[in-house]
Structure formats: structure tokens, C-alpha cells
Design brief:
The structure holds 2 protein chains of 2 kinds.
Chain A (H helix, E strand, L loop, with lengths): L1 E4 L6 H14 L3 E4 L11 E3 L6 H5 L3 E5 L2 H9 L3 E5 L9 H8 L4 E3 L5 H17 L12 H12 L1
Parallel strand pairs in A: 1-2, 1-4, 2-3, 4-5, 5-6
Helix pairs in contact in A: 1-5
Chain B lengths: L6 E5 L4 H13 L4 E7 L3 H13 L4 E7 L9 H25 L4 E4 L5 H10 L3 E5 L10 H6 L5 E4 L12 E2 L4
Helix pairs in contact in B: 3-4
Classes of the chains: A alpha/beta, B alpha/beta.
Chain lengths: 155, 174
């Protein structure tokens, strides 16, 4: 299964492109569409879920926005990720670029139209099957140190 | 008598901002009591957090909501109209939150409205802890740059940002 997620925002370009790809390829796709206005016809969809992890886990490929919440979680699950820039929001490009540089994901940063995006995603879907994706290494948060700092401040 | 736990005011934010601070709360567990500032409109975040607190015996002393300072709507007209109304509302909400809160420590990795709460809190000599957003690798956020001078503790998740925040500490990634 391919899972598409826009996170807490929306991206109608992405959902339209996915709808076209699903019809063309006859592929099983599930999409989380946030507060987007476009409702896909060839894709199972929902707006939000408090248990989105279950969708991540059940999919082989994740196509998502470049929001950090989704990216980090899917990386930790070791998923194959195609990340698409959210055009409408002020979200940052830093993380998407960094992860592509490190070979962890495929990042689609620029696209001009829905058709453009259809082509870019189709190409990425082929690439990601053959491309060797590097495993993301997480540097764990030092909670002991953090607690020490906090108790010094509270005292 | 049971000694009461220290209380922390957490400004949560939405989307990825919420997700990182939620992870931190999972690590801090019920060593503290909490006052939460939810972002208006992010029901998923609110539901997720309240469920977690209930399951883990975490005491929520107060729940507040604050609106986003800037929202980008599908319609440009609505975006412009709200760019006047939202900041004004956020100012009043922040004053209310700071006056009503019992916490001496503020904690956040949110963006936007948190700036108001932190600057007001500073006037009441609250201790401020800010965690720069984990989506920032090379470019510091506007919120981060505004809060860096007044924060008591400023935490990074990407060491590449050290040149913008020399006094910040890097504790790894949430």
C-alpha cells in the first residue's frame, strides 16, 4: 500500500496528483487529506486520525508533505519516503533538503502544476524501488541532562 | 503532607511543533504537573495528549487555548482579514494565560503566539525554556531568534545552528 499524508495542513496539488496516479496505475492508495478542499475519487481518504502510526506501519511507501512531524516518525519506522513540498504554507525547506542530501528520502521541492507533480511522483516511485535508501540514525535526546537543567531553573 | 510537584506551563503548538513537545512530555512523565496551552483548531493534538495524560496519571492543572497568529487560508481575502484580527486576539489570550498560570517555568517548541506569552512571562520573571524547532537545520526560525535573548535555557536539535545561538545547548533529537 502507498500512504499519502499532508499532516496538519493541506496540499490539494498533491491529492489531485495522487488521484490521477491511482486511476492510471490502478494502485491501492490511502490518503490523509487534512483540511484540503479537493476530495479524491480513486483513493480511500480521511481527514485526520489520532492513530496515524497504524497507517504508516501498514504501508511500503509513504508520500508526505515536508513537515517534520511526519518525516521524523516515518524515518524512525524505516519507511521509504517521497516528500513533497507544501506550496501553500510557510513550512521550512531545511529538513527536506538535509534528508535528501543524506540520502534518507526523495524530496520534490519544486513543481508548477498538478501534471508536473504527477510526472515527478511517477518518476520518484520508480526511483525509490531501485534506489538504496540510507537508514536514518537518530541521536537520542538527553533527558537526564534536560531534567538537571530544569530542576536548577525551578529551584 | 505530600509535597506538590513543580508545575510547568507548556505551549504546545500544532503539527510537528506539537509532536516534538509531546515526545518530551512522554520523557518527562509525571515528574511534573502541567498547564497546557493548546492551539485552537488542532483537535487531534488535544485528544492525543489528554488521552496520554489520563493513561499515565499525569495531572493537568490548567488547559488554555490560543489562536495562531498567522493562518494561511485557501482564500486570500480571509487570510488578509484575519491577519489583523488574529494577533490582537492572541495578545489578549496571552495576557489571560500569563495572569492565570501558576507555573514558574515555561516550556515550548512552538512558533508564533508563544513569543507573546514568553515576553509577557519575562515581565513576571518566569523561567523560560525554548527548544528550537527540529525542522531547522541551517536557518534559525523567527520565533527562535526573538526568544533566544530572553530564554533561560535554549535548546538545539541540530548542532549546525550553533553559530546563530552560541549559548544554546545541543541535547540530541526528540
Amino acid at each position: 500500500m502507498i500512504f499519502v499524508s499532508v499532516g496538519s495542513t493541506y496540499n490539494d496539488y498533491l491529492i489531485k496528483a495522487i488521484d490521477i496516479i491511482a486511476k492510471r496505475d490502478n494502485e491501492k492508495i490511502v490518503a490523509q487529506i487534512g483540511y484540503g478542499e479537493y476530495i479524491p475519487k480513486n483513493v480511500d481518504w480521511f481527514r485526520y486520525s489520532t492513530n496515524i502510526d497504524q497507517y504508516y506501519k501498514n504501508s511500503n511507501i509513504i508520500i508526505c508533505s515536508d513537515g517534520a512531524g511526519t518525516l521524523y516518525r516515518c524515518l524512525e519506522l524505516g519507511k521509504k519516503i517521497i516528500s513533497v513540498r507544501i506550496a501553500a504554507t510557510q513550512g521550512v525547506k531545511d529538513l527536506g533538503r538535509k534528508l535528501e542530501q543524506d540520502g534518507n528520502i526523495i524530496y520534490i521541492e519544486k513543481y508548477n502544476s498538478v501534471n508536473d507533480l504527477v510526472n515527478l511522483i511517477s518518476k520518484s516511485l520508480i526511483d525509490i524501488k531501485s534506489k538504496k535508501i540510507k537508514k536514518y540514525v537518530k541521536i537520542d535526546f538527553d533527558i537526564l541532562k534536560f531534567n538537571k537543567y530544569i530542576s536548577n531553573l525551578i529551584r | 503532607m505530600i509535597k506538590s510537584k513543580p508545575c510547568i506551563l507548556v505551549v504546545l503548538g500544532s503539527g510537528g511543533h506539537f509532536e516534538q513537545i509531546f515526545r518530551l512530555i512522554k520523557l518527562l512523565k509525571n515528574n511534573y504537573d502541567y498547564e497546557f496551552v493548546f492551539t485552537k483548531g488542532d483537535k487531534v493534538a488535544e485528544e492525543k495528549l489528554k488521552k496520554f495524560c489520563k493513561l499515565n496519571n499525569i495531572n493537568i492543572v490548567n488547559s488554555f487555548t490560543i489562536n495562531k497568529v498567522r493562518i494561511i487560508y485557501n482564500s486570500r481575502f480571509r487570510t488578509i482579514l484575519n491577519s489583523f484580527y488574529n494577533p490582537l486576539l492572541a495578545v489578549f489570550k496571552s495576557i489571560y494565560i500569563v495572569l492565570k498560570s501558576h507555573s514558574n517555568l515555561y516550556l515550548s517548541s512552538s512558533s508564533g503566539s508563544v513569543v507573546l506569552i514568553y515576553y509577557l512571562g519575562k515581565l513576571f520573571s518566569k523561567k523560560l525554556v525554548y527548544i528550537e524547532c527540529w525542522s531547522r537545520v541551517w536557518n534559525p526560525s523567527l520565533t527562535g531568534r526573538l526568544l533566544y535573548p530572553i530564554s533561560n535555557l535554549f535548546i538545539l536539535q541540530w548542532p549546525t545552528l550553533k553559530k546563530y545561538y552560541p549559548k544554546a545547548i545541543d541535547l540530541g533529537r526528540l
